[in-house]
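Notebook p. 47: complex prediction with tryptophan.
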Amino acid sequence: MSDRESPHGQWSTSLVFVLAAAGSAVGLGNIWKFPYIAGEYGGGAFVLVYLFCIVMIGIPIMVAEITLGRRGRQSPVNSLRTLAQDEGRSQAWTIIGWMGLLTGFLILSFYSVVGGWSLAYVLYAALGAFSEADASDTAALFEALQESPWTLLAWHTLFMAIVFAIVARGVRRGLERALDFLMPLLFLLLIILVGYGLVSGNMAAAVSFMFRPDVSMLTGEAILVAMGHAFFTLSLGMGAIMVYGAYLPKRSSIGKTTLSIAGIDTLVAMLAGLAIFSIVFSLDISPAEGPGLLFVALPTAFGNMPGGTFFGFVFFALVSVAAVTSGISILEPVVAYAVEKSGWTRPVVAALVSLVIWTIGIGALLSFNLWEGFAPLGFLADVPRLWFLEPLTGLNIFDLLSWTTGQLLLPLGGILIALFAGWKLSQPSLREELPMSEDLFTAWLVAVRVVAPIAVLIVLLNGLGILRFS
Ligand code: TRP
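Predicted complex, C-alpha cells below:
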C-alpha cells in the first residue's frame, strides 16, 4: 500500500470518515431539494430513476473518488498530478482537480444562500412565527424573506462565516468533534418527523406518490435531473469526497464505507420525502410547490401540531447542521489546494476563499428579488450556432449556478474520475486500495470503465438536447 501521508491530517477511524462523508452527503440536497424535485417531476418514476443512478453510477464513482483521494493524499489537483506521475499518465488529467475547484466555488455560493434560509427559519421557529399559521401565512413569510436582499445577505453571511470557522480549524479539531453527535441527532429527528407524518399526515398518499411509478412522467429532462441529483446528493464529481478520502486511514475498507455512506444518504432522502409529502398531502398543498416546499409546507405543519414551535426549532436547526456539514466539504478541497499551493496558513487561505464565494453568493441571492428577471446568458438566445445552450438562456444567476454545476460540471467530473480510476490506474494500484472479492472488483471495474461513463454521457447529451431520445 502506498505510504504517502496527507499534510492536512487524517480521520481517527473509519467510522469518523463515514460520519464526515455522510455529513457531506446528507444536506440540503436530501431534505430540501430531493423532495421538491421529486414533487415537480411526478414522484415514483423519478424516484426509481434516481435510485437506479445511485446504485449503477453513484456508488461505483464514489469508490473511484475515495480511491484516488487515498492514493494521492492531497487536494484533488495535486492528488491527480501525483497519481498521473506515478502511473506514467498525461498531466492533462489534473483537469479533474481544476474543474472541481471551479465547481466548488460555484456550488457553495448558492448553497450558502439556501443554508442561510434554514438558519433564518431556526430563528423564526424560536420566535413562534409558525404558531397557528395557515399555508398562506407561511407562504407570505417565505416570500418576505426572499424579497429582502439585506435579510438574505445577513443569513448568507452567517452561513459562510460558520463554514469558514470550521474549515479554518482543520480536519480534526474543526470537523470531527461536531459530527459525532450531530449526525445521530439528525437521524432521530427525521424519525420523529416520519412518526408525525404517520400519525397526523397522509402517509398512504405519500408512499404511493413516491413509490408508484408513472412512466409517462419520465422525460429526458426528468432523467437528467435525477442523474444530476444522484451526483449532487452523494457529493460526487468535484473532489469533495476525494479530499475526504485523502484523510482516510490506510486500513479502512473503501467498499464498505462507500456502502454505508450511500445507504445513509438514500435513507435520509427517503425518510425526508415521506415525512414532507405526508404533511403536504394532508394539507392540500401541491407537491410541485418548488423550492418553497420545505419552507412553506413544513412550517404550516409545525404551526398546527402540539409542541410545534419546539419541533420546528429543532428541525430547522438540524437542517442547518446538515447544510453546514455539507458546506465544509465543498470548501475543504479548495482550501486544501490553496494551502498546498501558497504555503499560507489555513485560516488565512480559508478567509480569502470564503470571501470570493460570499461575493458570488450575492449574485445568487439577488436572483430572488432585485435581479429576478436578469438572465446573464440571455444574449445567447439569438445565436443560432449555440442553440444547444438554449436551456440556459432563460435562467437567473441562482438557477444558472445550480444548473451548470448539478447538471453539467458534476456529471462531467464524474465521468472523468471514473475513466481515470478505471483505465489509468494500474491493476496492482487498484488491488492495493480495493482488496475485495474478485467478482466485486470486476463488477466495479466494468461499472467505472464502461457503464457509468456511457450512461452519464447519454443522459447528459440527451438532457442538453444535443441527442434527443424523447
Ligand atoms: N451532498 C450535499 C447535499 O446533498 C451537497 C454537497 C456537499 C455537494 N458537498 C458536495 C454537492 C460536493 C456536490 C459536490 O446537500
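Notes: The chain has a mean pLDDT of 90. DSSP finds 19 helices and no strands in the chain.
Next step: compare against the earlier run before touching the bench.
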